[in-house]
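Final report, closing paragraph on structural work. Over the funding period we assembled a curated collection of sequence-structure pairs, and we close with a single example.
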Amino acid sequence: VESVVIPNKNYEGIRSSADYDLHFPAKNLPAVGAAIYRIEMVTDSTLDALSQINLVQPTSPLRRMLENTNQEHLSVSSGQIEAKFSSGVLTHICNIGDKETESCQSVHQEWGYYTSFDSTKHAKSKDDTQNSGAYIFRPSDPKQELQKLAPDPSKSFVYKSDLVTEVHSTMEGGWIQQISRIFSGGDYVEVEYVVGPIPIDDGLGKEIVTRYRCPSIENGGTFYTDSNGREFMRRQRGYRPTWNLTEYQLVAGNYYPINAAIYIEDDNLAMSIAVDRSQGGGSIIDGSIEVMVHRRTLVDDCRGVNEPINETDAGMTHYPPYGDAKRIGNGLVISAKHRLSLSSGRKGASISRSLMDGAFSEPLVFAASSHKYVDFRKAE
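Its predicted structure, as stored:
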C-alpha cells in the first residue's frame, strides 16, 4: 500500500517516544474483523522478496525523508478542503469539495492561558478564599482575557506527501508544540498537540486553552456540547434554563464538560471540534470555541484532595512527619488531538457525529515481530 514516513517533532526530548510516524491508508477494514499489514525497512533484497510473494511494493516516499520547508504562508488541499496557515498556525478553511457550497472562511487557532486564582495573591477581601484547583476552575480575574502565546515562525515546518501534509509549529516559550494534519480526501483538520511542562517560575498557576475563531458565525452566545457522547445539549452563555442566574465568573461560569464534541452554528455556517478525551470548554466570545487542555495550579482549592494540581514526572517526597511533601521533577507533559470541521447551514450536530465516530472508533492497532515473510492471504 502507499505509505510515507514523517518526522514527529512534537515528541522531541520525551523518553521512549518514536522519532517518526508511518502513515498508510487502511481501507476496507471488515466490521468486527481485522486486516494485517507487514512493515519493514526497505532494502533492495526486501523489494525482491516482496515481489516474490506478489505484494504491492512500497512507493518512493517510504524510502526517502520528506523535504521540510520553512514557510510563513502556506495553502494545503485535501481535495475536499483547503487549509491556509501563517507561521504554522491555521488561518482559513475553504470548502472546495462541493462547487455549490464552495466558500472560504477565516478560521484562526490561538493558544493561551488563564492565570489561576490564588487567594494569597488575588483576593480582594479576606473572605475571598476560593482558589482554583482540582474541583474549581477560577481565573485570577473573573473578566480575564486569554493570555495569548504567539507562534514562533522559526520553528514552523511543513512536510508534504500525497497521503498527508503536516504543518509543525511551536508557540513562544517552546512548551506548546502541535502538528496540523490534512489527509488526502479528508474534510477536516486534525490538530495533535503536546503541552508541558507548564512553567511556574512566575509563581502563578495556569489553565491552558486553545481557541478556534470563525468570526463569520454569529451564534449569539449559543453553543452545543454532547451529553456523555449521546445527545447534544444547548448551552447559552450567561443563562440557566431553570433559574435566574447572577453571573460573577464570565469565563469559568460558561465552561461545560466536553466528552466527545462541541459546536457552534448559525443559519449559514457551523464549526465543530471533536476531542479524543473529556475536556472542558465553551463559546466565551461569539464565533469562537475554546477548549481547556491542561492545568497546573500552586494552591489547594480546599475541596478534599488537600493538594494543588501540580503533578510532576518524578513524584514527591514523603508526607510529614517523614518528609515535607514537595514535588520532584518537571511538570507533566500531555498529548491529545482535536478534529476541526466546517459545514454550511445548521449542520453542527451532523458534522460532529461524523467527527466523533472517527475519533472514538479508530481501529485498534496491535504489533508483533516476525522473522520471515508470511502470505496471510493463504493462511487458514
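The radius of gyration is 23 Å. The longest strand covers residues 334-344. We thank the funder for supporting this effort.
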